[in-house]
Inverse folding.
């Protein structure tokens, strides 16, 4: 068939598809398969007929060659997306013959793109331009990268515009990521369990690898590429040395092969003592020549199998893990050992700053800073120091870590948690966008006003070319990937902020809701509002006013502010809240642990002064009398009870909002979220009641009038115990 014939046939099928879609809409046709969340935000379900007609005028043909695996992935995604959204995929051609073509490629790979003479030099490897231009006399949409990966990222962006029903007329978009390494950290164990995972087992089927690479790996890579994630640490930071044995490295290589077309590099968590455990050496001393040789040879072996291997993530001398201090060496000695063997291959070391010692009497919140700040300038060029967002451990709210801004000579990498270890596991609806945004926009004042955490980690504050951000993944074998549909939003927002840490959490939530559920504004608006308020609700019903670490021992499920069952004081909630008959909160001012002075002077002055400290972190920095007058004029005791109560009321409102949205989306996902919200309300109430019962007993104060008393005595809450709690398998 000649070109005209093909075009006529395409027109015919397109018209037919539109007619079928319109009929379907009229008859309220059920989707062909149940919505189970597997498709994530890449659903590509048919747009409304009006949108289809409008968008089809900009998708009359696709000119995109598939000569490389990444360009093939981009083309396949465009065809898949356009087919789903518009009811039919445009014909693929090699010449622009119609108005409304889509042309995707790089200047080097496409003579059409080269004709545009766009300056792609500043796009780097990942950036792209999407522009409405004229080619061969036809108006077309060009998706242009300097590199194939930019074409892939641009293709996802273009599809997102369609999915969210934005105009694709007169496009002039240029995007370049602000952070170089955008990484998901899997805390997946080789036995298939996931530490702090609430979405089933590990998606890595180590047993069947390398022979069988599940199609799910490709879908995982697509999802990551769609939001710009370009690195994956496959295994838990509490690492098993076996991952470095030849049999496992072959499995790692098989995964790397699947991910490569999507621009995703593979990294491994390594166990510091691996030279002893699998290398037969007597020591893992980082300055020992035999140890250095062992790591060099091991690294070379990895690069033979995975030429674009990203590097190592290391948890050392932290929570019982081995490390350089076992040999009286510093963290810098340890990190530099790996840096030196990775450097010839272009790999990096992500060295974690999450350290605190059971032998130190110092405030746990101070220890990472005390340990690492003196080492600024001592790390080799390919080391990133990976710092958790707060000084302790992914609590519902913490101030930003004082390390941000304090180590100008070292590239600091952010570590966020996407999995909700401390935020209600899988079932609580807690959108983490506001948490991430709050941290990234915090001003460290390290170099005067505007020295935000975002600028520290994107490298611009201190002029680092190397920059990175990591999120602890919430992905597992559950059909919906993340244990709930709403948890997918946390994976999504992490990726979008990793690309550009100045984006707004609200705008990202809206994008996600539109792609994941519906573009109907009557649905989008209330759901985005509900998501945006959900993190503060969780803070209120769990740890308001700067409280932290009140959860159950080890498994971290539910409230246990009384618990002293674990051996280490810094694993016990009373260590953190310090409640007594006089007041509550941890004095981290100069009269206490002096953690406040780890911040830049203007911030330290604020945190040292009870009157200037934001009430959101009041009890993090101050031990405050129960009768202290808060800004509202109420006492601290009153405000504490009010916040706990507000948290529960907010969840009730979330349930109410959701109840009104019945019928706006498919029944399956609606019902699941409704059930999870019911669980959340029950557990929020439990948190409130248990914490109020406990603090009331400690304070000896009567409940302020107007608030319902906890329905059970404190002893009831203390008596609850739980077995086989998810995410806790390695304990
Ligand atoms: C992977 C917390 C978690 C641990 C986790 C650790 C870490 O302590 O509870 O499960 O271990 O952080 O980040 O290393």
């Amino acid at each position: 068939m000649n070109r005209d014939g093909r075009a006529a046939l395409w027109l015919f099928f397109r018209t037919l598809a539109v007619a079928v879609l319109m009929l379907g809409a009229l008859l309220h046709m059920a989707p062909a398969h149940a919505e189970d969340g597997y498709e994530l935000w890449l659903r590509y379900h048919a747009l409304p007929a009006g949108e289809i007609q409008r968008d089809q005028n900009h998708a009359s043909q696709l000119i995109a060659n598939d000569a490389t695996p990444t360009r093939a992935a981009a083309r396949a995604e465009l065809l898949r997306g356009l087919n789903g959204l518009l009811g039919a995929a445009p014909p693929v051609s090699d010449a622009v013959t119609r108005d409304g073509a889509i042309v995707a490629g790089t200047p080097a790979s496409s003579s059409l793109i080269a004709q545009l003479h766009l300056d792609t030099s500043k796009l780097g490897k990942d950036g792209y331009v999407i522009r409405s231009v004229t080619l061969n006399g036809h108006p077309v949409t060009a998706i242009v990268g300097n590199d194939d990966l930019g074409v892939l990222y641009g293709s996802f962006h273009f599809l997102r515009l369609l999915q969210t029903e934005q105009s694709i007329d007169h496009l002039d978009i240029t995007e370049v990521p602000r952070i170089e390494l955008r990484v998901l950290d899997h805390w997946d164990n080789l036995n298939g369990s996931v530490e702090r995972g609430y979405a089933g087992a590990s998606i890595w089927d180590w047993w069947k690898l390398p022979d069988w690479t599940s199609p799910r790996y490709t879908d995982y890579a697509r999802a990551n590429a769609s939001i710009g994630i370009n690195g994956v640490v496959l295994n838990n930071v509490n690492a098993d040395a076996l991952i470095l044995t030849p049999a496992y490295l072959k499995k790692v290589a098989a995964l790397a092969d699947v991910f490569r077309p999507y621009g995703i590099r593979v990294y491994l968590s390594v166990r510091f003592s691996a030279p002893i455990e699998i290398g037969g050496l007597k020591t893992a001393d980082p300055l020992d020549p035999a140890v250095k040789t062992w790591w060099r040879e091991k690294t070379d072996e990895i690069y033979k199998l995975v030429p674009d291997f990203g590097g190592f993530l290391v948890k050392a001398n932290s929570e019982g893990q081995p490390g350089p201090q076992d040999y009286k060496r510093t963290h810098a000695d340890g990190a530099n050992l790996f840096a030196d063997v990775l450097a010839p291959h272009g790999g990096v070391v992500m060295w974690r700053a999450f350290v605190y010692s059971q032998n130190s009497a110092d405030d746990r919140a101070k220890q990472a800073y005390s340990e690492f700040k003196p080492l600024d300038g001592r790390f080799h060029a390919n080391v990133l120091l990976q710092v958790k967002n707060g000084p302790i451990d992914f609590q519902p709210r913490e101030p930003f870590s004082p390390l941000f801004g304090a180590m100008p000579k070292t590239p600091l990498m952010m570590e966020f948690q996407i999995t909700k270890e401390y935020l209600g596991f899988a079932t609580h609806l807690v959108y983490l966008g506001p948490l991430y945004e709050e941290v990234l926009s915090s001003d460290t004042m390290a170099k005067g006003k505007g020295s935000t955490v975002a600028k520290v980690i994107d490298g611009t504050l201190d002029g680092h070319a190397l920059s990175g951000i990591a999120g602890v993944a919430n992905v597992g074998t559950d059909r919906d990937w993340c244990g709930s549909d709403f948890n997918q939003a946390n994976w999504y927002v992490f990726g979008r902020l990793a690309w550009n840490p100045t984006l707004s959490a609200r705008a990202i939530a809206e994008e996600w809701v539109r792609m994941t559920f519906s573009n109907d504004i009557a649905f989008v608006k209330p759901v985005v509002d509900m998501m945006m308020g959900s993190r503060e609700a969780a803070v209120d019903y769990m740890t308001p006013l700067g409280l932290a670490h009140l959860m159950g021992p080890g498994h971290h499920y539910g409230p246990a502010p009384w618990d002293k069952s674990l051996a280490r004081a810094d694993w016990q909630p009373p260590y953190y809240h310090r409640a007594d008959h006089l007041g509550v909160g941890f004095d981290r001012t100069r009269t206490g642990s002096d953690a406040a002075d780890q911040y830049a002077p203007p911030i330290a002055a604020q945190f040292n002064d009870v009157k200037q400290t934001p009430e959101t972190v009041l009890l993090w920095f101050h031990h405050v009398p129960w009768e202290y007058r808060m800004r509202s004029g109420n006492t601290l005791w009153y405000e504490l009870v009010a916040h706990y109560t507000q948290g529960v009321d907010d969840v009730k409102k979330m349930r109410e909002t959701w109840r009104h949205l019945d019928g706006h989306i498919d029944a399956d996902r609606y019902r699941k979220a409704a059930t999870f919200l019911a669980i959340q309300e029950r557990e929020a109430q439990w948190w409130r009641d248990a914490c109020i019962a406990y603090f009331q007993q400690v304070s000896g104060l009567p409940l302020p009038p107007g608030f319902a008393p906890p329905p059970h005595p404190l002893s009831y809450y203390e008596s609850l115990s739980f077995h086989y709690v998810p995410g806790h398998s390695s304990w």
